[in-house]
Amino acid sequence: RFLDQKGAVIPPTNGPDVGELRAEEEARLALHGLPREHQIGYLRHHAGQTRETIAEVIVTPIVSTETHEAIAALAIGFKPVAPAGQRGEPGIRSGIWLEGRLHLPSLAPESESLLGAQVAGALATPGSVDRGILVRVDGVAHRLFYQRLNPDSLFPAAYEVGIYPLTALLASQRQLRWSILGAGALMLLGGLGASHVFSRRLSVPVQKLAVDSEQNRVRRARAEAALELSNEGLQRAVRFSADASHQLKTPVTVLRAGLEELLAREQLGPDVRDELAELVHQSYRLTSVIDDLLLLSRADAGRLQINLAPVDLARLIEAGVDDLGTIPDALGIAIETDFPTPLRIDGDNRYSAIIVQNLLENARKYNQPRGRIAITARERDTQVFLTIGNTGRPIPESDHEHIFERFHRGSVGENVPGHGLGLNLARELARLHGGDLRLVRSEGNWTEFEARFRTAPPAAADPRSA
Q: Which segments of the chain belong to CATH 3.30.450?
């Protein structure tokens, strides 16, 4: 999950892909403000099981390269913590104390509740963590130890709680006592030796628990390092894209102005004038690519502002079709439309228009001579579905999973001008609108894409439509 600047959880648009959480579980991930350092927490998680589990959560801040301030945070949950009593170690059983409750599945619910009350008393007693406390579980004496798992964390305090049964130790002590009384000095020496052996044997589970704790610490450190490297890589990529686009925009503008000034001269021959006109056209195409890169870099950095309001999708489609009609085209493409008017969606007028324009341009570029483009739009429930299909060579099945990747140019587009940004940008903008963009099918002589938008809420409807 991502946290916004106030520490609140940003609901994901692809919940099944990133892990389902209940509303109350997702609320526990929220913090009072963004942290400056990594935070470790623990979350009670049901995930459909009969009894709840405890998942470990690591939150790392995402820092702006411009202001050096935290602008968001990324929370990653790991597999549920498996207490020692569930991993097969003899004797020792361990669990997690979190938010006033003990999670120790190897105990019966009644025993777990009673032990939780004793843990609460131990936590309120200074110094008990150093020597442990004596408790009774199901009528059997145990030694209880605990330690803080997330010191100095903004999340609620979590403690690892371990209980060690003393039955075998007490039985050994009673046996040794009778042996010493019955056998005298010789048996006393033998008893001391046996006591030493037993002590070594009984310490093995404790040593194994210490080794497991160290291994868990190492794995957690590796996960934090990998997370930090991933965050740094993302920041570098976003910074490079934004910087490169800014640096290119000014010289391209200057270049186009110089070309237009040359084109205005009257003494130019027809061939030279045509070449200059083509160069001016190419400069506009390059500016369009730079604008797309700037838009994508802002989206990657989470700085793209979407101002949602009622937008007439039918009007955007009509404007896009009119724009296609002004482009000189020797293909003779027929355009078929089928959609109601008005057709209102909840979106940003500028970015919704970019989605429609990119899909229409894609359908035109990859069409065939005397082909056709079919545009349909329908409202179903609380969503609006826009479908744009075109004739032409189908997209190879091996390219289906890559067509939305940035700068991807499949085999169908080898001789078609473009830079591989249109579909990627359209899908990113659709998802920012709470919708999506997908390839419906591409077979035979037909390719079809579907964009999904949210219907404009009735309360926010445009008064001019009354």
A: 1-80
What's the pTM?
Answer: 0.43
Architecture of domain 236-300: Orthogonal Bundle (1.10)
Domain covering 309-465 in this structure, CATH number: 3.30.565.10
* C-alpha 362, offset from chain centre: 29
Fold of 1-80: Beta-Lactamase (3.30.450)
Q: What is the pLDDT of residues 152-182, one digit of tens each?
A: 888 888 888 888 888 777 777 777 777 777 7
pLDDT value at residue 165 = 84
CATH 3.30.565.10-classified regions of the chain? 309-465
Give 190's contacts (C-beta < 8 A, 6+ positions apart). Answer: 179, 183
- Residue 460: the pLDDT is 45
pLDDT, tens digit, 9 for 90 and up, residues 76-100: 888 765 555 554 445 788 888 888 8
